[in-house]
Amino acid sequence: MPPRIRGSGSQPLLLLSSLESAPSSSLPPSAALAAPLHRSTASPSPQCNRSFSTTPARQVTRLRRLFKDWCANNAPLFRYPQPGQTNYVSRILKQSDFHEVYPNQPFPNNPAFRSEPVLSETARETIWRAVMVEGLPLKAVSAEYKVDVRRVAAVVRMKEIEKKWEREGKPMAIPYAKAIMGMLPRANLTERERREGRPFEPINDIHVHSYTMQQLFVPTSESREFTRADAAKAFGDHILPPDEKMRIPELVEMERKISQGLPPPQARAEFVEETKKSEQELAAKMRARLQAAEDRRVRVDSGRFEFRFEKINAEEVGPTGRARRAVGWRYGVPLMDRKRGEIKIPTSVE
Amino acid sequence: MRHRRLLRFHGLKRPRVRQTWNKYNLFNLLRLRTPLLQSKTFFQQKWIAKSMTRGYHGEHIKEYKWERMFSRRPLSAVNMDPTYMAKHNGSEQASGRGSGVSNLQVRNKGNFSGMTPYMQMVFAPMERRLDIAIFRALFASSARQARQFVIHGAVTVNGKKMRHPGYLLNPGDMFQVDIERVMTATGQPKRPSQNQKALPSSESSEEPAEDGGEAEAEGAATEAAEGATEGVDVEAAKKNHMKTLSELKERAKKIMAVGDKRIQAKHKKQLRKFLRQVKVAMDSSRKQSVSEMTSVEEELSSLLSDLSLTPAERKAKAEAEQEQEAATSSDKPRLNEKQRAVLAELIAREAENPHDPSKPYATPWRPRDWMSPFAFIPRYLEVNQRICAAVYLRHPVARPGRSEVPSPFSPTLSQLAFNWYLRRS
């Protein structure tokens, strides 16, 4: 569809008026042509203060009037943020699609999506202190404050950048941060908040495998103890039971010890030790992997460039000869990356 | 790729809820209802649902691109309570039926009740896109603006500049947006009208310009009338007033004429504006009383003194004034503790959020209008607003009773949209 010009309805009229004004004695202005002209002049367009323009101003429709009225009435409600509080449309809309609208629901029609609290500045500082100053393992901090391990890591990572900027005297978006924090629900992770309220977020999430989403009928004897591990095996040979998918398995171990009669403070201390050990093991493993990758590589520094050579086996092409990791040109496999118009958006950034 | 232009982006007649913080969008969001679909065929229902949902979720992304991104297997997660895991191995769920145990008090805590809203996860793959993640992190006022930030090179991913708005974030990726861009996008826009409001005499300057000749005629008439009634005293005052005004004008003209290279274009603009104001004052002085005249004179002269000074001079003058103030206040009782604390806080606030006309947004910075109803940050992002950085922690998931994809549409519509894309994937 070609782009429409605003007020294009009046263009024939414009054309007509230019025709009319032309001095032509042979063509007297006809009544049929003059009629719409008169109509256009008789009904003055609303609030047309552009004296030089012949284009009529846009009609004020009923909807536009409604909108203007709504804006005028709701400007004090929604135009400016409520200091220290959320300001969602659920303030005035209590019922939508015959369902109740909850106060933390930014979209009245979607009860499944809620605006959940974010970590406040003090909470981020607390987490950073626990990890970087007190030297607690990430898993222990996660279990302590009920914040996901990945979030703990992200908070520390960004807090480090923030501290670096502070040292360098780089300007930060402080008024922006304050304003946004004032508009969002916050969690301070204070002692009292943690004791009384809900946990900040679920920290023991496990991914639901699509194989386990089906209903299965497995005949077993009545006397058999059918555990989670058995259920996982029934769903598929490679399906792991939830116990092995836990993000912080040390937490389950701690609870087991407590239920067996170990005093909770001692169990907690052992938990911290265990998580520390597991974290060190993971770090050692990663270091070894990086070292192995480095060993495979040969670096040649020419002064201007650093060439990196790696041994590749061209025979490793998989059973069909079309493995994704295989290198080089192979018969019958199109090289799409050289095709015209192929946009090569990187899939990861190191 | 050529970007699709949309006419009636925020229409009122055929409303579409969009990914923006616009006030029209807020109005449309309030009016949004699930349409009556009973009389429609199944195809029509799906079509309507698809067109409504796609108007919000990545309307700037072409349909074939989205169809390739769509996944028919939404991700979901369940919280496993460690206490429950430690005490039970799962066999208790099977025990009891037929064995006598009927009501077990064992529960896996930490989950909401209710079904997992898988159907609200239709557009979860879209949330992986860099531009939409920037909008979700509240760094841009619309998804299209976020896209522009990426294209203009204001965004880095893991410290490297990323120019593809369609880059799909991986869990653990950190993206960072230029602070100035974020402040401009989310702050009050700098409008000439707002600047004019700060100056007191500009409003009066517009009036005479509009109804030109009439006002002058009126002015002449009132002048004649006043002259007749009040006599010589007022006349003399007026003469004086006109004289000072013309002196001010001369001074301003001289400053202009010097042609100093240090005078910036902005400075010149201000001078010209000042001249215009003087002219307006001279025009309107005929119908003013004496007290008004003096106040106008004072205002204008102070304006000119501010204008003609270079920044260094202005600073020196302010310091001198402060010293003078300190000298005068030394014999008065000094500030008490509380007042000093308040003053210190005010100064700190000013230093943090200063008035700075060189910025592209209105200063001191304030959040833009109609923003707060749209302010939320979904759980799959962790944002640090101070450095305008955010980490994409994981893909959005559905949990019992909750879905992490911010979508304004009802489950009915989302389900129909899901069905539309099922056919094509």
UniProtKB/TrEMBL annotation, chain A:
One of its GO terms (biological process) is mitochondrial translation. It comes from the Eukaryota. GO terms for cellular component: mitochondrial small ribosomal subunit. One of its GO terms (molecular function) is structural constituent of ribosome. Residues 40-55 have a biased composition (Polar residues). Residues 20-37 have a biased composition (Low complexity). Residues 20-55 are annotated as: Disordered. Pfam families: Bot1p (PF12298). This is Eukaryotic mitochondrial regulator protein-domain-containing protein. It comes from Achaetomium macrosporum.
Automatic annotation (TrEMBL), chain B:
It comes from the Eukaryota. Residues 128-197 form the RNA-binding S4 domain. Residues 204-217 have a biased composition (Acidic residues). The keyword rRNA-binding applies. Residues 186-199 have a biased composition (Polar residues). SUPFAM superfamilies: Alpha-L RNA-binding motif (SSF55174). Residues 218-231 have a biased composition (Low complexity). SMART domains: S4. Residues 186-237, 304-335 are annotated as: Disordered. One of its GO terms (biological process) is ribosomal small subunit biogenesis. PROSITE patterns: RIBOSOMAL_S4, S4. InterPro entries: Ribosomal_uS4, Ribosomal_uS4_CS, S4_RNA-bd, S4_RNA-bd_sf. Gene3D superfamilies: RNA-binding S4 domain. Keywords: Ribonucleoprotein, Ribosomal protein, RNA-binding, rRNA-binding. GO terms for cellular component: mitochondrial small ribosomal subunit. One of its GO terms (molecular function) is structural constituent of ribosome. The keyword rRNA-binding applies. Signal peptide: none annotated. PANTHER family: 30S 40S RIBOSOMAL PROTEIN, SMALL RIBOSOMAL SUBUNIT PROTEIN US4M. Belongs to the universal ribosomal protein uS4 family. This is RNA-binding S4 domain-containing protein.
